Amino acid sequence: QSEKSSKKLDTMKLPEKIIFNFELNSNELTTKAYRDLDGIAQLVTKYPGLEIIIEGYTDSLGSYSYNKKLSKFRAEIIKKYFVGKGIDRLKITAVGHGAKGFIATNDTEEGRRLNRRVEIKVKAE
What we know:
Layout: E1 18-21, H1 31-46, E2 50-57, H2 64-84, E3 92-96, H3 109-115, E4 117-124
Parallel strand pairs: 2-3
Antiparallel strand pairs: 1-4, 2-4
């Protein structure tokens, strides 16, 4: 039985998902977010058997089409960042869900802030 890669990773140690939140109508990432993205990029570069799934979400404000485009745009920004860090674009899936998958109420500003997010999952192929 041959090993696919000489580098193995205990996938049990990977977080289920990493979440980045956005301000209203914004695509801006914080300095901390970029540091976290760099950490993910280093991990995926070190362990080539990993893939990245990026899922964008919005709050319920705005039209369906606007939210769909915005969530996809946010996910694509992060995908392009990873590609710029040398990760093969075929190992990255970026999806925009729009105003779906709420993790908090949209009745409060805090709830809407939590729903404006990109979730990144790193998993073994």
